[in-house]
């Protein structure tokens, strides 16, 4: 029995020795998709949201205290320069003016009589000087009383629209307390909150000549060119933002304060960006081990190479890369983690479109 089993084993060994060794199966290259780097970024559009504000909104107040006799206008009324807007009860001020007038007229007559007496050497020069000084003092008092009487009338300092009327007739007011507010309706002011990154790039002395951002108001599809007006240099504590104002001429129908605004700005033409580079989709980038470290895989004659790149900005379309890639480079966009330097790949190529960038 043992001899029989040994013979079988020997036969199997002889059969295996007669068989040909298995052929090496060649592994197919890794299939990847690619893109070709096209033109560098030429414009970087960004949309800022803001609100229309009243142009030159000016609170108006009386310069004297008193009781409001009448407010002649309401919110939204259009007014002309010099138009009477509100009046105080002027009885007290009229009485003060009458008293001051009587004192002035009396002092004037006394001065005239004193001059006659002085010419006849009936009074001294000192007595004449006293009469002269008294007449001048009463003149000052009369002029002051007349001016205070005029302060009981509040008139429009310019053509505009009434934006607010916080006071009503028969209310008591103090000097400097706003009775109503008036704004210029021939202009539109746009208030845009921005971050510290944007405010740091604004230089009013180097505003690009001729460039005007485009503003769209509310649900209106038409856009209008606007001009830079001013900006704040202090951070607003509540919103942690700065503010930039733009202006434009009023339209028909009128664009009212409080209307929402979308401001479309080409950051390059506005001189608010120094970014130079190529727009790449995020699928072409591989993050490194350290923060801010990125790489791309370039395909060169069928083989791939790992190249470090500098990412300047991440936006809605991916990232702007300023170094590491050039026009015409073929970049791998799939299976990045399976790649190794020098690996041969099978490429499915497609060309990327470098459109204007919306940041």
Automatic annotation (TrEMBL):
Q: Which domain of life is it from?
A: Bacteria
Q: Name one Pfam family in it.
A: BSH_RND
**Gene Ontology MF term list:** efflux transmembrane transporter activity
Residues of the Multidrug resistance protein MdtA-like barrel-sandwich hybrid domain: 63-165
Q: Which GO terms describe its cellular component?
A: efflux pump complex
InterPro entries registered for this protein in UniProt: MdtA-like_BSH, RND_pump_MFP
Give the family per the record: Belongs to the membrane fusion protein (MFP) (TC 8.A.1) family.
Query: What protein does this entry describe?
Result: Efflux RND transporter periplasmic adaptor subunit
Give the organism the record lists.
Photobacterium sanctipauli
At the highest ranks, the source species' classification is:
Bacteria, Pseudomonadati, Pseudomonadota, Gammaproteobacteria, Vibrionales
